[in-house]
Amino acid sequence: MNKKGFIFDLDGVIVDTAKYHFLAWKKLAKSLGINFTEEENEQLKGVSRIKSLEKILAWGNKTISQDEFTALMANKNTEYLGYIAEMDENEILPDVQRVLDMLIAKKQPISLGSASKNARTILDRVNLRSHFNAIVDGNDVSKAKPDPEVFLVAANALSIKPEACIVFEDSVAGVQAANAANMVSIGIGSATILHEANFVFNDFTEISDEFLNTLITN
Predict the structure, then answer these.
(1) Please, which residues have CB within 8 angstroms of residue 164's CB and are 6 or more apart in sequence?
(2) Residue 209 among the catalytic residues
(3) CATH code for 18-84?
């Protein structure tokens, strides 16, 4: 039987935690007297916490001490974790559960490949941790996407060659990382933004069982 490695990003693919990042960053920006918009939040997707705060300060023309910078980052994370603590299965994006269940039924190895350092907590909150054979997150890798490290580590954890892996991603950097790893990239979101992916779907409701079967058998 054919075995492929299926690797899922977390934020924006399995759950939408971007809204919680937005609320936490908005509160932080407000405390500094900076107006923070959803458009600006889009520019922080897949960007590290340090780089995100640097961008917000630049947008607001603010300079702060290193101590204040460190304290603000800790505050932002605490705020964000407060939102995560309230998450449950209702946060799973449409049809993600169906796709995971079908891959499990077909005995296909599944890994998470996420930059989030809170990935395990989130998977526990939405009751999906047991669906994954391996979890690779921000605690396991040092290089950020578009570097392919996170996906290569995930493929290795599944004992599947990179070229036999399929990645589900919602960010440009993530799609580029999958392509750099020589994997099949599937963009979840807008085709105009994710045009570098091998396939693009608005969400998992558009991914049929037939399509998944084709990925497994080809």
Answers:
(1) 3, 4, 5
(2) no
(3) 1.10.150.240
pTM of the model: 0.88
Tokens of 142: 């040092």
Distance CA 153, CA 162 (A): 9
* Annotated active-site residue in 9, 88, 95, 124: 9
Is residue 67 annotated as a catalytic residue, yes or no? no
Which residues of the chain are in CATH 1.10.150.240 domains? 18-84
Dump pLDDT digits (tens) for 88-107.
999 999 999 999 999 999 99
Q: How far is residue 218's CA from residue 103's CA, in Å, rounded to a whole number? A: 15
Check: CATH 3.40.980.10 for 5-16+93-217?
A: no
Q: Choose the catalytic residue: 11, 95, 137, 203.
A: 11
